[in-house]
Amino acid sequence: MVKRIIGYFLKGLLVFVPAVLTVLTAVWAVTKLDTLLRDLLKVNVPGQGIAITVLGITLIGFFASHWVGWRLFLLVDSLFARVPLVKLLYGSLRDFIAAFAGERKSFDKPVVAEIAAGGPNVIGFVTRDDLTSLGLPGQVSVYLPQSYNFAGQLLIFPAERVRPLPVDSSAAMAFIVSGGVAGPA
After folding, report:
1. Are residues 91 and 126 in the same domain?
2. Average pLDDT value for residue range 161-182
3. How far apart are CA 150 and CA 99, in angstroms?
4. Alpha-carbon distance 176 to 145, whole Å?
5. pLDDT at residue 185 above 60?
6. What count of other Cβ atoms lies within 10 Å of the Cβ of residue 13?
7. Containing structural domain, residue 120
8. Which helix (H) or strand (E) holds 1?
9. Distance between CA atoms of residues 102 and 65, nearest Å
């Protein structure tokens, strides 16, 4: 009986903790952003800060889609790229977001790669099909996201040891990041 109660408690933790942490993080971020914008704009309407943020981001996207705005954002980009610590953070975040949401999505080719003949395989995403420019003809770069982490490794494989996976990119990413417990069954 005690074992069963402990089992129920552990299952409850598995459901409760991720859900609560996700909700609390989202509520905290939204509240902070809304409060910050209301204080800056001297407006006291709850939710208006979030609406302004969404509108602002959409307007930035609109301006960045046109020549004048694009030139301005290139100027800001080059400025951020020159400041030593800022360029590391800004460049990494820009490239990471562009890999998922940009015009040149980088994580759209899920593959399984053979580490050694007959040995273990890894699941990742081809980020470059041709590495001749690096002096590695016939090689491809495969990014391997880490489970339960926002990091990964980039490995180089002979192209013949990498084969496409017949699954959607988001399903492959969910499978990898969850340590194999989510995604395609």
Report:
1. no
2. 75
3. 14
4. 7
5. no
6. 10
7. 110-177
8. none
9. 12
C-alpha 131/C-alpha 112 separation (Å) is 18
Domain membership of residue 133 (yes or no) is yes
Q: pLDDT tens-digit profile of 43-60?
A: 677 777 777 777 877 888
Residues 34 and 46: beta-carbon distance below 8 Å: yes
Kindly list the strands in the beta sheet with 121-128, ordered across the sheet, starting from the edge strand earlier in the chain.
152-158, 139-145, 121-128, 110-114, 162-164
Tell me the DSSP string of the chain.
-HHHHHHHHHHHHHHHHHHHHHHHHHHHHHHHHHHHHHHHHT---TTHHHHHHHHHHHHHHHHHTSHHHHHHHHHHHHHHTTSHHHHHHHHHHHHHHHHHHSSS-SS--EEEEESSTTS-EEEEEEEES-BGGGTBTTEEEEEEEPTTSS-EEEEEEEGGGEEE-SS-HHHHHHHHHTTTSSS--
Residues 171 and 120 in one domain: yes
- Residue 61, domain member (yes or no): no
The number of folded domains in the chain is 3
